Amino acid sequence: EYGAGDDAVVLCTVARLLPVKGVDRGIRCFARIKARLARAVYLIVGDGPQREHLGAIANELGLGDSGSFAGARTDPERVMNAADVVLQTTFNPLNGIVSIEGMAVGRPIVTVVDSVEEEKMAADTCDEQRNGLFFRTTQPQESTDKLYEILVDHDRLRQMGLASRNMAEERFDLRRHVERTQALYAELVRP
């Protein structure tokens, strides 16, 4: 659909194109990966007032056709399912619905962070080296190296995707939340 070949390595971000979503961080992260992995492709699903500005950043970084703006879609999970990793870029990664959906479709979650505080916020959806990793903007070369190693290792991508799916079921399954809430109520009203 987006012209990526069968051998493409696809990173995907789903976000409203607003400054708080940090998609510019994702584009910069992708540019570092693209310099190491020519077959990498970045799909950005979403629309918003920063669309033109983000396109200019992508052009300035020389990403050309390797970065695609998919626009607003009603099926973002379909695009995430076609990706190799979901790239979470928001400045407030506290249980982001996109990360949870990415986990549910069995994709590794790569969370772009500027600080330890952001890592703490994303701890429920990004367990480093288990289901993904943190791309630390303060350590761009080390983060690029770690992400590159994951992207070229199909077994590791698969293992991390399975870990994501399992974590989503353990942590975010609605039935489990209801059961925990019922157990808490039962404990609180017990004589």
Task: Give the structure's gist in a few sentences.
By secondary structure, the chain is an alpha/beta fold. Helices cover 48% and strands 16% of the residues.
Protein described:
The chain is built from eight helices and six strands. By secondary structure, the protein is of the alpha/beta class. 48% of the residues lie in helices and 16% in strands. Strands 3-2-1-4-5-6 form a six-stranded parallel beta sheet, with helices on both faces. The mean pLDDT is 92. It is globular and about 65 Å long. Strand 5 (109-113), helix 5 and strand 6 (132-136) form a beta-alpha-beta unit.
Q: Can you tag this structure with a few keywords?
A:
alpha/beta; 16% strand; six-stranded parallel sheet; 48% helix; 191 residues
Structural shape: globular
Low-confidence regions: none
N-end to C-end Cα span: 61 Å
What is the helix tally?
Answer: 8
Provide the β-strand percentage band: 15-25%
Layout: helices, strands, pairs:
Elements: E1 9-14, H1 23-36, E2 40-45, H2 51-60, E3 67-71, H3 76-82, E4 85-88, H4 97-104, E5 109-113, H5 116-121, E6 132-136, H6 140-151, H7 154-172, H8 174-189
Helix pairs in contact: 1-6, 4-7
